Amino acid sequence: MRSPIVKATGLFVGCIFITLLLFHFACRELNNSRVEAGLLVLLTVVKATYFLLATLGWIHLTVTSGHHRKYMMVFLVLQMLLIVFSFAIDYYCLYQLDPSSFRVTALSHRPIEQFLTFLYFSVGKYTTAGVGDIHPVSPIARICAMGEMVVAYFTTVMIIANVGYLQMWFSQKFDNET
After folding, report:
1. Average pLDDT in the 152-175 region?
2. Residue 93: exposed, middle, or buried by beta-carbon count in 10 A (0-12, 13-18, 19+)?
3. CATH of the domain at 11
4. Measured at the alpha carbon of residue 78, what is the angle toward residues 26 and 120, in degrees to the nearest 5?
């Protein structure tokens, strides 16, 4: 039996990889910044929905499986890291499409340093500790940032703070079904 963490990692990384492939295809083939930006927002919404549903699904599995319960914290940490990384990719891609999407105090011209800047921005959005040296300016950049804030709020406050309650709720639902 495969470890549930390996399976979850594969699903999350697969989600991010598909997003990157579709975005790369759109940039190479479409050459239309509005369509590309719309595709990026759509993929961000799909990805955020997937992360939220995966978290609820994992909590549901912890009710029926002690094996999954044992890996709950590992799953939540993994999910947090993948959310931050995937939104950093979104911000970086959006910046590549339209540099005026973000107001940045100082940004290198080297791609790896640019990505690290957007990874820093993503960590700041996820933890709500952003210091304000990067600002989303365009509506699409703001939508992506709001998407990350909603996912971060949901996973940290609504899930982690209420894991016991959600497990009890899913357990009652499971008992009623059997």
Report:
1. 71
2. buried
3. 1.10.287.70
4. 65
Contact 114, 77 (CB under 8 A): no
Neighbours of 99 (CB within 10 A): 11
Dihedral sign of CA atoms 159, 56, 79, 92 in order: negative
**What is the pLDDT at residue 178?**
62
| Domains held by the chain: number | 1
DSSP string, 94-150: HHHH-GGGEEES---SSHHHHHHHHHHHHHHHHHT---SSEEE-SHHHHHHHHHHHH
The range of the structural domain enclosing residue 93 comes to 4-177
Provide the total of helices (H) and of strands (E) in the chain, helices listed first.
Answer: 7, 2
Q: Within 10 A of 132 (CB to CB), how many other CB atoms are there?
A: 7
- Phi then psi for residue 104, to 5 deg, are -120, 135
**pLDDT tens profile 89-117:** 888 888 887 889 999 887 888 888 988 99
Tell me how crowded residue 134 is: count the other CB atoms within 10 A of its CB.
Answer: 24
